[in-house]
Amino acid sequence: MLKYPKDLLTLIAHLKKLPGVGKKTAERFAFSLLEWDNKELFEFSEGIATLKERVQACAECGCLMDGVQCSFCDTSRRDKALLCIIGSSRDAYAIEETGNFRGLYHVLGTLLSPLEGKTPDSLNLPHLEDRIKQLGVEEVILALDSTLEGDATSLYLKEELQKNGIEVSRLALGLPLGSSLDFVDEGTLSQAFSGRQKF
Amino acid sequence: MLKYPKDLLTLIAHLKKLPGVGKKTAERFAFSLLEWDNKELFEFSEGIATLKERVQACAECGCLMDGVQCSFCDTSRRDKALLCIIGSSRDAYAIEETGNFRGLYHVLGTLLSPLEGKTPDSLNLPHLEDRIKQLGVEEVILALDSTLEGDATSLYLKEELQKNGIEVSRLALGLPLGSSLDFVDEGTLSQAFSGRQKF
After folding, report:
1. Which residues contact A17 (CB under 8 A, 6 or more apart)?
2. Which residue among A10, A18, A42 places its CB closest to the CB of B32?
3. Domain A56-170, CATH class in plain words
4. What is A6-51's CATH number?
5. Residues of chain A whose pLDDT is less than 70?
6. CB contact, 8 Å: A64 with chain B?
């Protein structure tokens, strides 16, 4: 049986590491790259090679910086009393899009997942506590995934932060906008009931 | 509203050009690339930059070569009397996997699609006819997509090749293996009827 050329196989192996990309999709990507012109391939390759050097995370909040200044850490325009804890730097953009939050962010970078070796140490709690003290944060909002890992992390952080007398809240659980009750799972419905709001 | 860093946006624009990748998926890819280590990013970038130089198409049949020799053109081990016409170099690997075909291949590189400016000239027919003459091909098998473009191309090639008295066949149309009649569309079913085989 004939195999793909060696260099194509290497490229396919790299493409397969992208999230949600399996063997077939990676092959499709590789063959489509073969049809790009040289300039496009060069620019794409350049973008990947220089990615980490050009796009760096803010040492303070962990959000991505465009240039040398972190626009998420601009305390002159943002509310220092509110700190929103997020799992990945990408979440900050989603929250900014809502236009609802004017506080500061704190990127954990990872969620608790003992099986993958992500223990509380990976969360770098001392840095978080230092920031909270320095900024004079009054409320910490936990905006983590509503998954096993996210919930475990939220619970852990809540306990640790409340020890220091910090007010902790987390995002509301309930019906997504535009959803029909028929299609909402039991867990969500039950959370929506217990978290019902005065109307 | 805060935007992604400039360099990340450029990378996302490149990723969006991959087939089936929209804005959201490209963003997911870009953020996942941020988590790769430097070595992986370097190798990936290198693989893309050198792709076209290292993976080249055979000037004769259009299939991809692994090194300097085309393993699809090895006439000592393959049947010169059979020529299979395929749309893209990738199709040759799928056909090789069946283990059913021992002839030679001819990659068109494109299908007829007048709206996209793909006219009969793009098919490079003179080269195909030269190959047929030189190899002494007795039967040409059209193995093109069963789409509008594929069918138009098959029809065009059939007429052109039959003018020169070459025997032309095309892949059978019918039920895919393991399919249930309930789920088969009318067109396929009708083709399966008209192409029914003695049993």
Report:
1. B32, B36, B40
2. A18
3. alpha beta
4. 1.10.8.420
5. 1
6. yes
- Å between A96 CA and nearest CA of chain B: 6
- Tokens for B48, please give them: 């893309």
Please state, in angstroms and rounded to a whole number, the distance separating the CA atoms of residues A135 and A137: 5
Secondary structure class of A33 (helix, strand, coil): helix
CA–CA distances in Å: residue B117 to residues A138, B17, B120, B121, B160: 63, 20, 10, 10, 20
Query: Could you state, in order of their start, the residue ranges of all structural domains in chain B?
Result: 7-54, 56-170
pLDDT tens profile A71-91:
898 888 899 999 999 999 999
Q: Which chain B residue shows the shortest CA-CA distance from A48?
A: B45
Contacts of A14 in chain B (CB under 8 A): 40, 43-44, 47
Q: Which residues of B117-152 are buried (b: 16+ CB within 10 A; e: fewer)?
A: ebeeebbeeeebeeebeebebeebbbbbbeeebbbb
pLDDT digits (tens, 9 = 90+) for A49-63: 999 999 999 999 999
Pick the CATH number of B7-54 from 3.40.50.1820, 3.30.70.360, 1.10.8.420, 2.30.42.10: 1.10.8.420
> What does the block give as tokens for A83?
């700190």
The amino acid present at B92, given as its one-letter code, is A
Tokens of B170: 């095309």
- Tokens standing for A51? 């990615």
Which residue intervals of chain A are DSSP H helices? 6-15, 23-33, 38-49, 51-54, 89-98, 125-135, 148-163, 186-194
| Identity of the amino acid at A21 | V
- Residue B54: partners with Cβ closer than 8 Å, 6 or more residues away: A5, A7
Q: What is the ipTM of this complex?
A: 0.84
Comparing alpha-carbon positions, the chain B residue that sits nearest to A90 is B31
The C-alpha of A163 sits at a distance from chain B's nearest C-alpha, in angstroms, of: 32
